[in-house]
Amino acid sequence: MKPLNDTIHRITERVIANSRDSRGRYLELMEREADRQPDRTQVSCSNLAHAYAGVPEDQSALTAAKGPNLGIVTAYNDMLSAHQPYARYPERMKIWAREVGATAQVAGGTPAMCDGVTQGEDGMELSLFSRDVIALSTGIALSHQMYDGMALLGICDKIVPGLMIGALRFGHLPAIFVPSGPMPSGIPNKQKQAVRQLYAEGKADRAQLLESEIASYHSPGTCTFYGTANSNQMMMEMMGLHVPGAAFVPPGVSLRQQVTRAAVHRLAAMERGGDDYRPMARVVDEKAIVNAAIGLLATGGSTNHAIHIPAMARAAGIAFDWNDLADLSRVVPLVARVYPNGSGDVNHFHAAGGMAYVIGTLLDEGLAHGDILTVWDGGFEAYAKEPVETDDAVEWRDPGTSGDAEMLRPASDPFQADGGMRLVEGNLGRACFKSSAVERERWTVEAPCRVFETQHAVSQAFAKGELDRDVVVVVRFQGPRANGMPELHKLTPPLGVLQDRGYRVALVTDGRMSGASGKVPAAIHCTPEALGGGPLSLLRDGDMVRVCAETGELSTTADLSSREPAPHTDDQTGVGRELFAMFRMNADGAEQGGSSMLAMAGL
Asked: pLDDT digits over 27-48, tens only?
């Protein structure tokens, strides 16, 4: 095993230095919270009676204060296929807690919305701020202060970051994230993508498109493409917050039950006052945050995490920005190609060696922090092994060599030498460019721009043939303050068609794209956003715009100095959007995490 890469060491030291004051304040707060958490044996009997009334089977153990009481925060609903398996988790987890002399209660639930359902609809404008609501809901759940550990049940896009942010404010307690795994693979991904593009061109009808989509997203479990949800699970492994190898074990198999049972047992063993106390505040430190970013880069994960990682870091008192991410990308190689960056999905990735292989090869080459505190015995090296079931138990073994060299390669012989997440900046602001998803000959596009304010307007212009040329499509007023920074995934099929027709096409937007965005060069999350006078608000149709991942450039030759910002007229009423006016009004920039809650809390 090689020593830690010098550049990674220097970036980590920079993050530590930049975080010194805020991290110090956070750890002091956690020490105070630990000191002032009530001793349940001294709490008012009336308070305890209320707390224990709903769990008659555990009342005697709770009353006698026998063993730790674990709080379950669940994001269960069956609108999200990924979260549908959670319905039965609490009752099983209570049984598994009793096996080790502990108790467990459902502390509370959080909302969990499906970006796949709201994609391209008005409800998507609540998506990013749902992360703040989830964090607040987690805080409410844990405010009862009756718990000695936190079991966090969440998987999808905003849910894991929201649970993380909320739980970190109770970081004096140990915590473990409990996933449920991906659905079985559906139709081949190339077939799904082809039908989408045919529909965008008017060559497939709605019935054919719906048939294809249902064949892709067809049963309980996480969607199998490598988007934000599965990137979340990767990061939990990279931070040591899972049972090793838990991320992509499918639901409904006995091994999934065994790793969940192991999670409950492990959480009980980490209780405060025990011999192996591991508070979340100590597990999620600067090195863990850097490891999460390294995993994102090494696997070509979702660009949404350029927003989520800084937000999660802030909740732990850690300063991490796009300079850190871009600098890490220069030395972290791309070792995985998972759809949409490759042909196989997360089930194929897991079968080929999955996270155990990724972590092992990164550690071998000195490309990840191996000395982080994790929730599991054996440190981070334990995460370089995969779980297997033997005689109704679970053991961990070395995954061996890659089972598919088209999907997983060693860090010593990667798909590309860098992590493919680049910072582009210039007189149009700062933005992220996911170069790992784009052919290198398309990393530079310079063309007249066409400016839009909705993705629907882009689709209409495409249908009329107005974009059949070299063009930089600018979609503005999509930032956190304008409309909640929705994901603009519906732009991908028409822009992909234009690219396939031979045109030089790029996207520039202050909105979001996800790990599902694919092959079109895109400068996304542009900050400062257009609302409030950001540079995108000054662009006009026909201005020459240059997007270049090679040189890190996002610029226009137009003279913006004498222009007035374009007016913003989007109506933010309906589908509950008016209720989120406070979130929009107080949100900070994308690079800071696009959060109103963290900004208002002074974090």
From this structure: 999 999 999 988 888 889 999 8
